[in-house]
Amino acid sequence: MPKNEPAEPVKTSESAPSEIRRPGKLQQIWRWVCSHLAVTIPATIVLILAILATVPQTRYGIAGLFLTQTLPITIADQQTKTPVSDATIKLAGHTATTDSHGRASLRVPVGPATLVISKKYYETITRTITIGFFKPRESLHLSFQANGRVVPVTVTNWISGQPVSNAVIKAANTSAQTDEHGQATIVLPAGRAAVSANITAGGFNDLAANIQVVGQTSTDNDFTLTPSGQIYLLSNLSGKIDVVKTNLDGTGRTTIVAGTGYEDPHNTSLLASRDWNYLVLESIRDTTNQPKLYLINTSDGRLTTIDTPGPNNSISLIGWYNHYFLYDITTYPPTGSASDKLKSFNADTGQLSVIDQTAAGISNSSSGARQYFSNFTLLTNQVVYTVNWETTYGDTSILGTVSNSLRGIQPNGQGRKDYQTFNASQTSYGNVTGYEPNAFYFSTTSNLADSQSYYKFEDNTVSTASSAAAQTAFESTQPTYLVSPNGDQTLWSELRDGQNVPFLGDDDAGGAKQLTTATGSFEAYGWYTDNYVLLSQDSDALYIAPAATGNHAPRKITDYYKAATSLAGYGYGYGAQ
Fold first, then answer.
1. Residue 569 above 60 pLDDT?
2. 441 and 535 share a domain?
């Protein structure tokens, strides 16, 4: 090659023509899988599980990681075919206890598992079962073989005689529950004649009992539970007037406020709120010889003073409305200021308030006049009463233009309203008598014509009443209507053939039905919850009965001391009727 000719360039890979190489099928699949991991990973897991699920040995084990099923089980006694309550069921790490119908249910993983059912004095059941993928159509029924004596037991309500369901009977280290018929079977050691037991149920007092170990139904194994709660009343068994409490069947009688010996039978009263949370006691308890008002909180029996009226003052108890207690204090002779003060005490807050009072007296050189309250009637959320003026010598000219009125006010002191007014020198208010709850007749007297007119107060409205109906009501003894705590029912008694017969009605005493057909004279006394009514007999024996009509004989609670003081109002407090 000539020296002056350029050398031929050397070929390198960079200058060589490029060759396009396409990836193979496996590489393409791999690249797609890597770029779609959100889809391919779950799909792969599902595929693997599907493959494993085709193998019988692994199918339930894998499904059990994700799937559960509810298995209902019913256990019955092999001999009596009655349900076995309080049996312990263990399955797949879960535990349940059979109810009064021998039933229980467990939610467990699907697949095979060991079922163990046990209870004292029964042969333990152990078996392997398989919980399937689909919900069972019916409960798994199993029979329990007793190795003791199967004893039937019945539990009823002491007051009503109705069965008590879900009562728990514990005896000899085993237990059973009653069904809706108040019945249960409990297996006890066959070698014993009787065993001690404890029977409990919600809303009832516990009962210590002895169960006879017999294999057949026996009245010796019929037991009654008393609804829980206490009644408060006056008693002079000690020679003093005490405040005592007792269970609803008369047991557990305890003195909570002992008498001091200064009590006056004519100035001692006890009045309970409708829920029995509070009591008001009017009593003379010291050397001042003056009656005072006291509050008793039934939750702890604590006694506190509400009011000390002092000399020349008299107390007229009106009654409870919810947790407000209303009463009137009269000062006589008037001292130039108000002679009557209507007071309200809030038991929840301890606040005592004067919610109304009479005007100052009127006088001239020859005569005088005072205003006074009377005829208190406690209605739904208000007390209604008459406001009258009276003169010293019957000289009405001194009254001028002042008015007499029929007035109402709420227990908290709000909503005061005069429903009717008359010129005091011409017309005055007479008596009041109730003809149904929250309604009453009243009369007025014309000072000019010496004549009477009759009206009725109902639904917060005054209207003219039939003279014949009103006069009949005034001339006869009208019932004291006692309103239930929820306000839906009314209890009262009427004189029939010389016997007081109790009746139940709705909130207006409509739809009256005789409470009981039991012989004897029973007066309405009060309510204990909305389920039971209290009745008195011979004025010194207290009874209780279910708040339902029928052939329920009232059950005696206890004897008690009947207060001499009567209520000025009616219907919303219990204990001083």
1. no
2. no
